[in-house]
Amino acid sequence: MPEMHFVVRWPDGAESRCYSPSLVVREHLEVGQVYPLADFLARSRTMLNIGSERVRAKYGYACSGALDQLAAIEERAATFEATAAVTVVAFDPPAPPATPPPPAPGER
Questions:
Q1: What's the confidence (pLDDT) of residue 88?
Q2: What's the whole-model pTM score?
């Protein structure tokens, strides 16, 4: 499975490099986007559980790394006020560049 990492900046300015066993993160977070803490937590729960279940479907067991990462995110988030926000700083590997549409007929 293609695993990835994502870097987030917490409200206190500290950054964390987080693990996902799947590229599903790209479907739930966007680099440069600022998320209210509750929204970031909900997205993290969803994407890391999906990633863990993809591992289960392929290998027959859940991904403990994804579940450990979720626990670490929840623990860190609990140290901030509910009104705080989290910024997604980077994906590793980075998302591929958008593919431009093919030229219209006669534009070649």
A1: 98
A2: 0.85
Q: What is the pLDDT of residues 47-72, one digit of tens each?
A: 999 999 999 999 999 999 999 999 99
Q: Is residue 106 part of a domain?
A: no
How many domains does the structure of the chain reveal?
Answer: 1
- What's the CA gap between 73 and 43, in Å, rounded? 11
What span, in angstroms and rounded, lies between the C-alpha atoms of 96 and 11? Answer: 28
Q: Token match 């289960």: residue?
A: 56
Question: What is the dihedral sign for C-alpha 30, 6, 86, 46?
Answer: positive
Expressed in angstroms, the distance from the first to the final Cα of the chain is 38
Domain around 13: 4-92
d(Cα 34, Cα 41) in Å, to the nearest integer?
A: 12
- Would 98 be classed as within a structural domain? no
Chain position carrying tokens 């860190």 = 76
Is residue 100 in a domain? no
Tokens 């300015």 -> residue: 13
DSSP 81: -
